[in-house]
Amino acid sequence: MPLQQLQSSDVTHRLGQLHGLATGGLVLVQARGLDDADVAITAVRHNGTVVLQCEHLEPRLAQRLIDMVSGGVCAMDGKIHHISSQAVLFLPAAATFDRVRPQAD
């Protein structure tokens, strides 16, 4: 699965990069602001799996961004998985995700 990392501060440029996204691709969005919601939702709309990293945002802004993307992804019947307090995985409706946990001895 190809990984496309979007770091440019120009959201329009990043949206343009998504047009080359292969179906089923993985997109890493290192969020800088609320405009990144469009980038993440567009990637999921194009059947991309998105890892949204919010470590560079203030906690309230990060939560607002996660809420915005979650709403858009839910509207497309997509799936949401919290990976950590600062990273969320968004999947298109047809994708699956299994979290493997180590077994206790």
Question: What is the secondary structure topology, with strand pairs?
Answer:
Blueprint: E1 3-6, H1 11-17, E2 26-30, H2 36-45, E3 49-53, H3 59-75, E4 79-84, E5 87-91
Parallel strand pairs: 1-2, 2-3
Antiparallel strand pairs: 3-5, 4-5
Helix pairs in contact: 2-3
Quick description:
Helix content is 32%, strand content 24%.
Could you characterize the architecture of this molecule?
The radius of gyration is 13 Å and the shape is globular. It is α/β, with parallel strands linked by helices. The chain has a 5-stranded mixed beta sheet with strand order 1-2-3-5-4, covered by helices on one side. It has helices spanning 11-17, 36-45, 59-75, and strands at 3-6, 26-30, 49-53, 79-84, 87-91.
- CATH architecture descriptor name: 2-Layer Sandwich
Strand content: 15-25%
* H/E topology pattern: EHEHEHEE
Please, what is the oligomeric state?
Answer: single chain
Q: What integer value in Å does the Rg equal?
A: 13 Å
Q: How far apart are the termini?
A: 33 Å
Kindly report the average pLDDT value: 83
Biggest beta sheet attributes: 5 strands, mixed
Strand order of the largest sheet: 1-2-3-5-4
Low-confidence stretches: none
Q: What is the count of DSSP helices, taking H or I runs of 4+ residues? A: 3
CATH class: Alpha Beta
DSSP, total strands: 5
The chain-level structural class is alpha/beta
CATH superfamily: SepF-like protein
What helical percentage do the residues reach? 25-40%
Number of domains: 1
CATH topology: Translation Initiation Factor IF3
Shape: globular
